[in-house]
Amino acid sequence: MSTDERTLALVAAGGLDLDDRRILNHLAELVERADPVPPGLIESIGMALTIEAMHAEVAELHLVGEPALAVRADETSIEAGTITFTTDVLTVMISVHAEAGRVRVDGWAAPAGELSVELHQGGDMTSTTSDSDGRFSFSDIERGPARLVLRRPSEPTIPIVTPQIEL
Amino acid sequence: MMSDDLVEPVDTELRSQGEGLADQAARAVVAYRDGDRAPLAALVQVMTPLLWHTVRAQGADQELAQDIVQNTWLTLVRDIESIRDPRATLQWMLVTAKRAAWRSVRRSRDEMVRHEQDEHVTDWLAAPADDLPDTVAVRSERDRLLWQHVSELPDRCRRLLGLVALVDRPDYGVVSRALGMPVGSIGPTRGRCLAKLRVALASDPAWSVS
């Protein structure tokens, strides 16, 4: 056994001390700074788990037409835009307006009727109810990835979920 | 399938243990099965960074790593009823994420070889400090020295130390096992990887004076 090898074996057999913890803490900082968890990842996992928890009976609403205008989270150009989602049982149209750094979402669902409407953003959820004409709105909403979940009184166990959009 | 009679003793046992990620994960799984999703949501916050770096240490690129980490969580909730021992959740997730990353990376590397591209994808913690993006990571001489000595360690040691650093002591063994390193490679003794780093730092005069 060489001297180097003997030293290494001796140090390796030693118990962890405060210096070890300091070095590891320092290393943790470097790791986190060099390769941070991408912004939004934790939120989108939270959202995926929320949707997953609703279980298999989810009717997916499909995006219709060109989403570019309304869904790009471009800092400079969040113009009012309209998006339509559709499924066999429901059509939802929403328009998004910039409002002092935040956004307002106005929506309309057909066939008309009172629906429970939830806006999911990361782990957060805001809910409202549509009026008898199927209209609903959310104001003072943070920008970022979002998803609507609508529930019909006739079939409360089968929520209708939109794909994720960028407000 | 997990039977309910196993849940309670586990939960009782946990209360007497120190709180590490493995314990927190176990409690989150038990709570989720009882219909309380909040502890799992909290777990996502604290455990995702560890999963992220585990996957990145296998050489997965940013986009791939995001998919793998998210899928690992989805797999957990889909299989949550069949987890026999909730205390094994952390290890199970680390192994699941690591394997998924390893498979994807190997697949994409095979493709890359065909495209005659470079394959510097597994250089986790190995890039020279000077190559780091705009010294975001390296802010001081001491940062640079530590980075340099860690970079010079064998691949396995870099991964082990880089990931063990992210957890607290109760979870050292879980991280080592998930990486396929022998049990006890870190804690209660230092183990050879940390010893190598200590010896290297101790023999660097710049480290001791800085």
Automatic annotation (TrEMBL), chain A:
UniProt keywords (A-Z) are:
Carboxypeptidase, Hydrolase, Protease
The keyword Protease is assigned to this record: yes
Q: Which GO terms describe its molecular function?
A: carboxypeptidase activity
Identification of the protein by name = Carboxypeptidase regulatory-like domain-containing protein
TrEMBL record, chain B:
The family assignment reads: Belongs to the sigma-70 factor family. ECF subfamily.
InterPro entries reported for this sequence: RNA_pol_sigma-70-like, RNA_pol_sigma-70_dom, RNA_pol_sigma70_r2, RNA_pol_sigma_r2, RNA_pol_sigma_r3/r4-like, WH-like_DNA-bd_sf
UniProt keywords (A-Z) are: DNA-binding, Sigma factor, Transcription, Transcription regulation
Q: What is this protein called?
A: Sigma-70 family RNA polymerase sigma factor
Q: What range(s) does the RNA polymerase sigma-70 region domain occupy?
A: 44-109
* Pfam families cross-referenced by the UniProt entry: Sigma70_r2 (PF04542)
Look up and give the organism this protein is from. Cellulomonas humilata
For molecular function, the Gene Ontology terms on record are:
DNA binding; sigma factor activity
> Matching PANTHER family, A to Z?
RNA POLYMERASE ECF-TYPE SIGMA FACTO (PTHR43133), RNA POLYMERASE SIGMA FACTOR HI_1459-RELATED (PTHR43133:SF8)
One GO process term, biological-process aspect: DNA-templated transcription initiation
